[in-house]
Amino acid sequence: SHVMFQCSGSEANDAAIKVIWYYNNLRGKPQKKKLIGRIRGYHGNTVATASLSGQPHMQADFDLPYGDRFLHVSNPHYYRFHEAGETEREFSARMAAELEALIEREGADTIAAFFAEPVQGGGGAITPPEGYFDLIQPILKKHDILFVADEVICGFGRTGNLWGCETYGITPDILTCAKQLTAAYQPLSATLISRPIQEALVAGSKKHGSFGHGFTYGGHPVACAVGLETLAIYEERDMVGHVRAVSPAFLDGLAAFRDHPLVGDVRGVGLIAGVELMADKATRAPFAPSRKVGVLVQNKCHEAGLIVRAIGDRIAFTPPLIITKAEIQDMCRRFGEGLDAAWAELGPEARAAAE
Ligand SMILES: Cc1ncc(COP(=O)(O)O)c(C=O)c1O
User: Fold this and answer.
1) CA dihedral in degrees (198, 223, 54, 169; nearest 10)?
2) Are 286 and 246 members of one domain?
3) What span, in angstroms and rounded, lies between the C-alpha atoms of 294 and 316?
4) pLDDT(355) > 70
């Protein structure tokens, strides 16, 4: 029902955290403050959002997670973590059971919210397993725990719908977005809140004389003007329709690399996908991290004229939404060159293990 503007995705999620704590104080639940994130989830760089994220390198030696309000559940990365013979639905049920066990262990009266990206971006472009959000949402509802959808990557068309929440049937209490809100030409982010939360903010503002949150540059008029124009262009050009039209070429083009000896799995939706590099496909054994195979592939792709990002041994693809089918073909050709060059450089020992 209301939107609060800030300057970055981190600030949008940080504001969501503050608003959640404020809301629970105002509705007489001061004990209900813990937040659940997911291992490999990414929500930002501030003290609170890095604590909520599940990125070890952003926490180690930063003294994070800060305090005792941040909890984490497993990364729902089906390909890497499913047990032999476990279906996606069974895996999702195991993830949901883990969440419920955590809630029961900590006490639902101490837990305020669960944060999730519809598709995990910083974790390596990881799509949720089948049924995951369908199973998780009723558990959160039952325990009066808010669902915050972090749409900083997924928002505005990335998954083939305006929102990742539509793609995965999520009804969030709070939604955060940034990046594509201005096509990243200006720093602007937003925290969208539902009515009960907005009403609590109004009540709190009356109690305290004003709403005590805001940044000098939050909702900056230049950024907002660019945001409005960006949204107008998305509509004029039917950007969501375009994503849907080119998505099969993108997903099929990358899926063709499943047969490459370096590639264990390819998964994606809309215009976001992750390619998982594997030392041994049959046993799903990863390469030793010290070999930095992901970085090797990334560098070889750069040499082939393709900018990709290695996140560990996952190669993440989130091309501009305006990408054309011809550009997707070119992208895939260059990716193939990069993979082959990395494969050639890995040496006979690694190749023997992978074959
Ligand atoms: C899902 C998600 N949330 C939050 C952030 C943080 O946004 P920012 O870098 O604008 O602070 C990012 C950044 O990549 C992100 O991918």
Assistant:
1) 60
2) yes
3) 10
4) no
- Does residue 41 have its Cβ closer than 6 Å to ligand 1? no
Ligand 1 mean position, distance from CA 152 (Å): 6
Give the Å distance between the CA of 185 and the centre of ligand 1. 15
| pLDDT digits 0-9 by tens, 210-249 | 999 999 999 999 999 999 999 999 999 999 999 999 999 9
CA of 65 to the centre of ligand 1 (A): 17
Whether 278 and 261 have beta carbons less than 8 Å apart is answered as: no
pLDDT (mean) for 183-210? 96
User: How many structural domains is the chain composed of?
Assistant: 2
**71 and 24 housed in the same domain:** yes
194 and 248 in a single domain? The answer is no
> pLDDT tens across 41-69, in order?
999 999 999 999 999 999 999 999 999 99
Minimum-distance ligand 1 atom for the alpha carbon of 45: 11
What is the Å distance from ligand 1's center to 286 Cα? Answer: 27
Nearest-CA residue for ligand 1 atom 8 is: 9
- Say whether the peptide bond before residue 348 is cis (omega within 30 degrees of 0): no
Range of the domain at 194: 2-235
